[in-house]
Write a structure and sequence with these properties.
By secondary structure, the chain is an alpha+beta fold. It has five helices and five strands, in the order ααββαβββαα. It has a three-stranded antiparallel beta sheet. Strands 1-2 form a two-stranded antiparallel sheet. The longest helix has 27 residues.
Length: about 180
């Protein structure tokens, strides 16, 4: 009997492939770009005059403190606080189908503060809570996996942060058609 069970197991393992879940490239690339867009927007809304003290509050052997001021918007503390709630803003995104190329990506449909910034809703596909929940899950996965990289990237004032994060560091948009799209 044991030989029969082993034979059945061997035959089924040979004939049936194991299935592995594949990440949705459009979803994860869009979530990565949305994270960069939301962080850039939040950082741009902070008063550039606001600063925060960083460094150690211990005295050095010579009696001095190693304390310095950095802009609040680019501080690791502020960026960490932003990352805690960044994925909640994924409810403002929906699947967008480009009418010309038929390319799909998740884009922001909700205007921020300027009420005249309404997009054309006919190109969006609203899948209800399932659509935003999957984008939120992808966002949370990216933030969890790349939190330190995101913080260090945004703490330095670098250009093309979205490309560096999504194409180089996380590799979610590398080799895809979504590399240079604006959100």
């Amino acid at each position: 009997m044991a030989a029969y069970v082993s034979l059945v197991f061997l035959v089924t393992s040979v004939f049936f492939k194991s299935t592995e879940g594949k990440k949705d490239d459009v979803l994860y690339c869009s979530a990565c770009r949305a994270i960069a867009d939301e962080l850039n927007y939040s950082i741009s809304q902070v008063d550039p005059k606001k600063t925060i003290h960083v460094g150690s509050f211990r005295l050095n052997p010579d009696g001095t403190l190693t304390d310095r001021k950095v802009p609040l918007a680019r501080s690791e503390t502020y960026i960490t606080e932003l990352l805690e709630d960044i994925c909640n803003s994924m409810n403002d995104y929906a699947l967008h189908v480009d009418p010309d190329t038929k390319g799909k990506s998740y884009k922001r449909f909700a205007p921020r503060n300027d009420k005249s910034d309404f997009p054309d809703f006919k190109d969006f596909q609203f899948d209800g809570p399932e659509g935003s929940n999957s984008l939120k899950f992808a966002c949370e996965s990216i933030v969890e996996e790349y939190e330190d990289d995101i913080i260090s990237l945004f703490a330095q004032e670098t250009d093309d942060v979205a490309d560096k994060l999504c194409n180089v560091i996380s590799d979610h948009c590398k080799g895809s058609t979504y590399q240079h799209q604006e959100l």
